[in-house]
Each structure stands twice: as structure tokens, then as C-alpha cells.
Here is the input.
Amino acid sequence: MPPTATSLVWSSALLERISEPYKRVQELSKNILDSELGKETLKLYATLSSALKAHLHTTYDQWASQVGMISADKLKLSLLIKTDEGNLAVNFDPHLVKTLREVYYLDIMNSTEKSDDSNFVIPPQAVAIAKDKEIFRTQVLKLDFICTTYNAFMNSMRDEDEKPLLRQELDQFDAEMQKGMRDIHWQNRELIDDFIQNALNMVNSIDSVVSTMHGNVKSIQESMAEFIKEDKMLPLNASRGDKTMTEADFRKKLEENSKNRKAVLTQKGQEVHELVADTLKKINALKQELGFPPLDSDTDVWCHYVEYVNGVVKDLVCDSAVNSLKQLRDQLNPEWLEENNGIPLLEVKLTLTRPKESSGERPEARYDPHLANRDGVSQSVDSLINEAISNIQVTATYISRLDTGDPSENYHMEVIEHKEVNQ
Here is the structure.
């Protein structure tokens, strides 16, 4: 409840509270009323009643004498302002809000109070403002939506490569907002609604494009994050039925995993290019709507933006490779296996040979498969691990680059040169 109404309600309530006992005292016998205590009681009531009535009228008169001037002055304010932080804000002064609330509660008091002391004539200026309170409320809500939406996309867009894409549209919107900050005031009733509607159309159109722009990048990130999350070939996990594999089983699993990764990443690569193309399509649709020339795929500002998205995709591809290599590293780390109740990757047999005594050959111990490559041996644990590493690195070739326009170019070199990959 606003301050003036609060003070008036408080005073009226106290006045009513002492009036009922006073009426009952007056019904007492004349002897009691003429007694010293009776006279003191009546005097105390008169003093308190007079003070409360004086407070009621003083409080109201002070408010009524100022409300007209303050309201008229505040209606001359512009619709919008820019804050010190550079954000757009509604410039509906708090004094106007307070006036509307005061009138609302005074109306309620006037409709419920029967005493003349608690009945107040609201100044015509305040009545005129209160008459349009729903109009003001609707306008303030719409303007607040415009400001909130504008501030949100302006603060979320990258200065170096996203804002330049919509520079003409943003400048046009800023020019329109200048009218609300300079030319149109709350007293210009005939101009406000048209201004708000035009601003709403513009801010919604720009916000839709910015949302698409950010949403498409987020979709790329979420898609690759999903791929990384689902990449669970290693380490082996007993809870899902994994077992230590023979050389043949591991080679088969590597081949199946490689085919699956190729299919999934090829599809995701196509989706990445489609999402980027969708962003350009939405930007050009907005430009056409507002009468600006479209962007070509080789326009400088678009190329800068593609470089940014290309960097995002490159990082995601490298993250995928690093994740897979870390999983392979854990699988080969005895300490990790012991701490996590892991399962050994490969089944390696130790074979002992017993040549005939007449052959002159010495007994020999060998591993099957061999642990390392050597003359005459092409299949070994070492070669299997290198093959697994190669399969991980080659996945970078399944997504074509965004920044060259050549579908044969990919992110393989970035993965090979990546610091964590090399570690």
C-alpha cells in the first residue's frame, strides 16, 4: 500500500476504534460524566479525536496539493531511457505508479467509509491519470517486453562476428528507439501505441533471427556432446556384459566401431552445414523484410561468422578425439583398472615350445599375439593399439570444414596437432 493511503487508513482505523467506546461512555449517567475521571476521559477523547482528524486532513491536503503538479511533470518524461550500463529501460516514473496506487486505495476508502472525516475528494489531475491506468499498465508491460528482449539479445551477441551480421537492422531499431527516448512522451497518447507496435514488430523479428543463430550453434554443440557421451566402446565395463577380447574379437570390434563412428559423424557433419545454411537463410529473410540487401556466402561479415562457428566445430571434433583417447589410455592403465575394477582389454597367451632334442633348437617362450612388432610379425598388441589410435584420429575426416567450402577438407590436421591429443 502506498504511503499516503497507508497513513490515512491507519488514522481512520484509530479514529473508528476510539469512537465506539466514546459512544458507550456517553450513555453513562450524568453523575459519572461530571466526575473528575469522566471529564478527563471526555477531554482525552476530544484531544485524540482532534489530533487524528487533523492528521487525516493534513496528510491528504499535502498529497492533493502536490499530486497534480508532480503527475503533469512526470507525464512529460520520454517513454524510454538508456541506463548507465547501456541497457534500454522503461521511463515510467515511480511517482506516477505511486499516484495510480494512491487513487486506487482512496477510491476504496471513499466507497467503504461513511464518515465525512474519512471521505476524500480526489484531485481532477489524479482522476484523469487514474482513468487511463489500464492503458498505462498495458503500455508499460509491452515496453518492458521490448526492453527486456532487446537487452537480452544485445548482451548475448558477440561483438566481433554476430552483431556485424545484423548491423543495419540493429541501427534501424536503435533509430526507432531514439524516438521513444527523445520525441515521444507519456502525454503523447496518440503516438504511443503506434510506436509500441512498430517496436514490437522489429524487436520480435530481430530476436527470432538471434534465437535461430544461437539455437543452431547450441544444436551443433549438443549434437557433438551427445556423440561424445555415447562413445562407450572403452573402457570395458563388466556391468554391460563386456569381456576381455581375443585379438580377432578386438579387430572386429574396432572395425564395427569405426563404421559406426563414420556413419554417425558423417550425418552430424551434414547437419552442421545445414544449420549454418539455415542461419544465413533466416538472416536474409529478415533483411528482405526490412528492405536491406541480402548477405552472400562470400560476404566478409558472413565469412567472419563462419570462421567463428568453424572454430566451435573444430574444438568439438578435437574434444571427441581427446575423449576417445583418454578412454583408451584408461583401458591400458593398470592403476586405473585396479582402482575402477576394470577388465583387461586383450587376451594374451604365453606359449612355450619344446623342440625335438635332435633339432638342436632351444626351448622358446612367446606371446600370442606378440606384444610388439618385430621382423616377420605384422600382428601384435602394439599394432592393435596403433590401429585404435588411428581409427580415433581418422574420425576428424568425417566432418568437412565450414570455412573453406571444399567438402574434401576436414579437421584431421587440427586433431593431429592438438596438444591434448599428442599428450
